[in-house]
Amino acid sequence: MPSGFQQIQTDEEDDAEPREPGLTPTLALSVFTAVLGSLQFGYHIGVINAPQKVLEAEYNATWLRRWGVPPAPATLSTLWALSVAIFSVGGMAASPAVGLLADCLGRQRALIASNGLALAGGALLGLAKLGPCDVLVVLGRCLVGAYSGLASGLVPMYVGEIAPTRLRGALGTLHQLAVVLGILLAQVLGLEALLGGPGRWPLLLALGLGPAALQLLLLPFCPESPRYLLAVRRHQGRSRHTLPAALGHQRDLLLLDGHL
Ligand SMILES: *[C@@H]1O[C@H](CO)[C@@H](O)[C@H](O)[C@H]1NC(C)=O
Prior knowledge:
Number of strands: 0
Order of helices and strands: HHHHHHHHHHHH
Radius of gyration: 23 Å
Bound molecules: 2-acetamido-2-deoxy-beta-D-glucopyranose
Shape: elongated
Largest sheet: none
Structural class: mainly alpha
Strand content: under 5%
CATH topology of the largest domain: Growth Hormone, Chain: A
CATH class of the largest domain: Mainly Alpha
């Protein structure tokens, strides 16, 4: 081995800073909690494929009850296309708000707030059978789409900011992994033998509520991102006014001070 190479290695070892903590339980919990949002995002992408025939029949019956005549095939396929595509429209409409939400509320509380969309959308999808199901499914898909648009920005941001440098790459892949797992889960559950059958589509569509509820339950135990807290601190230093969002973060700020 060339001696210069050896030299560099020795130097690095001499200068080595104390090792960053690795995967602590709090970090694992926070990353798990955050990627529940990605799981839900994937689930809603995948879930709509399986029950197409069942839902079209349901739309058909709803239309017949409402107008007294069955819909033209073109109307039915337009309704169906709308139910699928409105998800992306909701996502596109909501995603520009990611930066604003993350900076005004903080990463953790922006995730909590966005869960409101997921819960409302999931409830509409689950209860669609009780009302005008075409309208309710379209509305529900729009709301879960908006949640997914927020989650696909907030989750990688939060995970990237709480992960120590050494683990940032590895943990950063979990968002994408969870999206794909969600799609897989939706495809499997959508099988005719599981939840793809005629009477079971409300349950299939509403299952996204599971990860949403679990995420909402766990998020209060996750710390706020240190990068956001530092930004708040810097802002406080510059002006006498505290960011309103920082008020709830006294505990996290004190913890951060302990580390500085
Ligand atoms: C819609 O309902 C009508 C009346 O029940 C039926 O004749 C028609 O085949 C149905 N169309 C589809 C696509 O299910």
